[in-house]
Amino acid sequence: MGWFPPFVDERVIPALRRLGQGGITEIGSRDHEGLYFRSYHWNDLELSRRPEIKAIHPDVVLALAMALNDGPKQFEMPSVLVPLLNKVEIPLAVRDYAQPFPTCIVKNNSEYHIVRADETGVHCLVCIGGIKVDTCGMFQVDRTIESYLSETTMYSHVPIDDRREAIYPVEAVDHRFRATLNFLLMVMAGGFTIQKPTQHDKQQKKTSCVKYTVPDRFEPQDLPLWRVKLANATSGPNATGEPTGIKYRPHWRRAHWRRVAVGVGRVGRELRLIHACLVNRDRLPESADVAESSYSVAITTKPCGG
């Protein structure tokens, strides 16, 4: 089934799907004396308390339930983009982040990342191999995504019981979900289309409860343009036209409101929402004076397809 964790019994799929369809009304977290508390207020409390549901890590329950809610939506990120997108900063506030669907599945090389986003924040999860789970919750909506991705210390969560986890600091590495979040922002800006289902997918959807795990697959548009733009943004030539290896720092410009000139003679003013877009310093090294630089838009925002 690809994205669906192999350690979760297939017989629990209908229950997880019903749990997602019932929805949640609250999600919160707080730190207290080294213990991490996270609460999920499921609308269907009776279903959420069933033993087969409680036996699964709560982060996995949340991700799977919401992915199965209205049918899983999957994108595959071209492997050539991964190292490029891992260099792109995301200084957007968590509240300004947007993705094509409330819950998206992204195939990142051999991993399947499940990303859920709503007014409460952004929740990323990947199940690796047997039962190892890596998760990242961004629930302070006024905080920037980059501040989460750039923390010099990350934390290992060790379950104590159903509601508590002990936190231990560990050495930070390149963030697992940076490329994935950049990719979903990229899809929002560039548009996407749905792929025609294969005969195998059609056959799978006819058989038992597993049919609910067969995802609709979507592909982004304008990927050749993105590859060129991202390559130009991360390394450029010197004055003689030869590559220098100097790294430039592209980033996402946050969504913002702007008054624009409209009407006859463009004398009127209208308030419009400018969507988030990828920008970069035009051929400037990191040591350049930012005050004297100008930003050039590396992509153009246009309506999403799909």
Question: How are the SSEs placed, and which strands pair?
Answer:
Blueprint: H1 13-22, E1 24-32, E2 35-42, H2 45-48, H3 51-54, H4 58-68, E3 73-77, H5 82-85, E4 103-108, E5 111-118, E6 121-128, E7 132-138, H6 145-149, E8 153-159, E9 164-171, H7 178-190, E10 192-194, H8 199-204, E11 216-220, H9 223-234, E12 235-237, E13 243-247, E14 251-253, E15 256-262, E16 268-274, E17 277-281, E18 295-297
Parallel strand pairs: 3-4, 3-11
Antiparallel strand pairs: 1-2, 2-9, 4-5, 5-6, 6-7, 8-9, 10-11, 12-13, 14-17, 15-16, 17-18
Q: Can you describe what's shown?
A:
The chain has 306 residues and is α+β, with helices and mostly antiparallel strands. It is built from 9 helices and 18 strands. Strands 7-6-5-4-3-11-10 form a 7-stranded mixed beta sheet, with helices on both faces. A 4-stranded antiparallel beta sheet has the order 1-2-9-8. Helix 1 packs across helix 4.
